[in-house]
Specification:
heterodimer; A: mainly alpha; Cytochrome Bc1 Complex, Chain D, domain 2; rod-shaped; B: alpha+beta; 3-stranded mixed β-sheet; 3-stranded antiparallel β-sheet; elongated
Chain lengths: 332, 282
């Protein structure tokens, strides 16, 4: 073989060898282990710490909230969807939801073309009257106890039952003679059915009411509700109480979304408060605040009320006309 | 003159001789080196069994085949997925970089083409009030809308990913369990992959100088968690699971629905399956 060819071959071999050495030198550990990439990068990526910790992480401390949330409509909405990622909590950060819940809740619930019909949607301007969502809705159990019970009561039969069982305390015409017992005349029938049902089932207890309600049949409950709803609620204004109705009016703005501006509830499943006995209202609000009467919504809104606030609210509602506002306008 | 030429010739010959010797030496070293390389390669490609389970002690990627489903009929466009993803994966908190995003398609009466916008649209950014928060504005509330829907989008983790094909450094690759990952240490930021992706799923992070994209929260799914967007979705519009398990959410989703993929004509064989999208969605 000619010398120059030998040299050429030698040079090529040398070049190849140099190339291979360079490749060996520059190829990092674990490259080509599974393919044309650095296998060690896979465990590196897998080792990143998750920021979202899932509801189970939250449950380990907030078990009570978790139980309420997981039993209600928002159970498909995980804790961190509203509260934000739990990484760093509780050591570094509190996970409160944004103060402006009107902005937060409408992310999902603003009526918008393109949203599926099954999604509950509201037009904000027509829905809340400018209130924050959490005033009425508990985010962990957002559905209000506003399911209107089916009404099929017979007022005449209810009248007889009333005379036999209820009149001695609640008054012959459903107007209570005692400041601590509620007026029933003109009350929303659906609310009465719900609340009597609660006494009957034991969900709500009262020394007087519980034994009486347990003797009532479902038909009795319906009849009584129909009877009271049909009565005139006009009563002699209850005597002056300690509360300041003016201060109560300002506070009552927080209640207006459900109970109406003057205490005429927008939904028949919630009670009318207008013209109600002030003493009864005070007791009821204090019972909600103490957790003796159980209602997720009322528990939330009464938590921040002082005794003076409660007295003022009661005085305000007691002083209102129990006739519906629309009717009042007509008669004017 | 001639003398100089001859002397330079002599010098060249001497030089070539030296090179020749050097080459012989190099050849010898190379043989040894090549031997070393083969050993090294052999060591590098030792079977996975010797590593135990890979990539983590509790997770074996040969046992899984991940899949993702999107039920656009359920999506409400709340963009909780987008915010969750940003937080989970250190995506730049602005209105231009997204691992996952949501598009809104609106057909108005009398218009043949859909109007499309996403959370990055300036009007939507204005509605949210900040580039770090995301929401769709209600611009169509008073229009006559014939049809409208939201479509969540993310990396399709294609079976034949074009981004992997064009990567010059092996910085992006497909794992055995079906996720396309990016090795940020090996990415040189050339952005070929950004251009190769027909779905626009990749973007270049100017701060870190590497390409980023959705990786189905690989750090979560290898720990038995759901991807952050699936975790955050309040309506179950995003479905994730192991296709090797016939009872997993994704297997049931694919079996019980007529699913489709985006741009099947590209031949990439995407692994994100859609229900309830329209002809214009690509």
């Amino acid at each position: 073989m000619p010398k120059h060819i030998v040299r050429l071959i030698a040079l090529m071999v040398a070049g190849l060898a140099l190339g291979l050495i360079a490749k060996w030198f520059f190829t990092v550990e674990s490259f080509y282990e599974y393919g044309h990439y650095r296998a060690n990068s896979v465990p590196e990526i897998a080792a990143q710490e998750p920021a979202y910790k899932t509801a189970r992480y939250c449950q380990s401390c907030h078990s009570e909230r978790h139980a309420q949330w997981s039993a209600n409509n928002h159970k498909t909405v995980n804790c961190e969807t509203c509260h934000g990622a739990a990484k760093g909590h509780p050591q570094k950060a509190k996970l409160t939801i944004p103060a402006d819940t009107r902005k937060l809740c409408t992310l999902c619930h603003e009526a918008m073309p393109g949203r599926p019909r099954t999604q509950p949607q509201i037009a904000l301007t027509q829905h809340s009257g400018g209130q924050q969502c959490v005033v009425c809705h508990n985010p962990h159990a957002p559905k209000l106890a506003g399911v209107v019970a089916k009404m099929a009561g017979d007022a005449a039969a209810g009248s007889k039952k009333h005379a036999a069982s209820c009149a001695s305390c609640h008054g012959a015409a459903g107007i209570s003679p005692n400041d601590t017992w509620p007026n029933l005349a003109g009350q929303n029938a659906a609310y009465l059915v719900r609340i009597l049902g609660a006494y009957k089932s034991g969900d709500q207890t009262d020394v007087m009411m519980s034994p009486i309600a347990k003797t009532l049949s479902d038909a009795d409950v319906q009849n009584l509700a129909a009877y009271y709803a049909g009565l005139s609620c006009k009563a002699a204004p209850s005597e002056g109480r300690a509360g300041d109705a003016g201060a109560g009016k300002a506070l009552a703005k927080n209640c207006a979304a459900c109970h109406g501006e003057t205490g005429i509830a927008s939904n028949p499943a919630w009670p009318k408060l207008a013209g109600q006995r002030a003493g009864y209202l005070v007791n009821a609000l204090k019972a909600f605040r103490a957790g003796l009467r159980k209602d997720p919504m009322m528990a939330g809104v009464t938590r921040g009320l002082s005794d003076a606030d409660i007295a003022n609210l009661a005085a305000y509602y007691a002083a209102q006309s129990c006739e519906p506002v629309t009717q009042a306008r007509k008669t004017q | 003159m001639k003398q100089e030429t001859i002397s330079s010739l002599v010098a060249r010959r001497a030089f070539l001789r030296k090179i020749g010797r050097a080459a012989t030496c190099a050849g010898a070293i190379a043989t040894a080196g090549a031997l070393g390389v083969t050993q090294k390669v052999a060591a590098k490609s030792e079977p996975a069994s010797s590593r135990g389970s890979f990539p983590t002690p509790d997770y074996d990627w040969t046992k899984r085949r991940w899949g993702f489903g999107v039920d656009a009929t359920k999506c409400i466009g709340c963009l909780r997925c987008v915010e969750a993803c940003k937080r989970e994966n250190n995506v730049p908190a602005d209105a231009h970089h997204f691992n996952t995003w949501v598009e809104r398609y609106v057909y108005l009466e009398g218009e043949a083409k859909a109007r499309v916008d996403s959370q990055a649209d300036p009007q939507n950014v204005a509605a949210s009030g900040s580039e770090k928060e995301y929401r769709f504005d209600n611009r169509y509330q008073d229009s006559k809308v014939e049809k409208a829907f939201f479509v969540p989008k993310l990396c399709n983790q294609c079976e034949h990913p074009p981004c992997v094909q064009v990567c010059p450094t092996g910085a992006t690759y497909k794992t055995k369990d079906g996720v396309v990952l990016i090795d940020s240490k090996y990415c040189i930021g050339c952005q070929y992959c950004v251009q190769a992706c027909p779905y626009g799923a990749r973007y270049f992070n100017v701060r870190t100088r590497v390409t980023q994209k959705c990786y189905w929260c690989y750090h979560r799914i290898t720990k038995g968690l759901q991807p952050a967007c699936v975790e955050a979705c309040p309506v179950g519009a995003r479905i994730f699971g192991d296709r090797n398990d016939p009872q997993s959410p994704i297997s049931l989703f694919i079996r019980n629905n007529r699913v489709q993929v985006l741009r099947p004509e590209t031949g990439n064989a995407p692994n994100v399956f859609y229900v309830g999208i329209d002809k214009e969605v690509g």
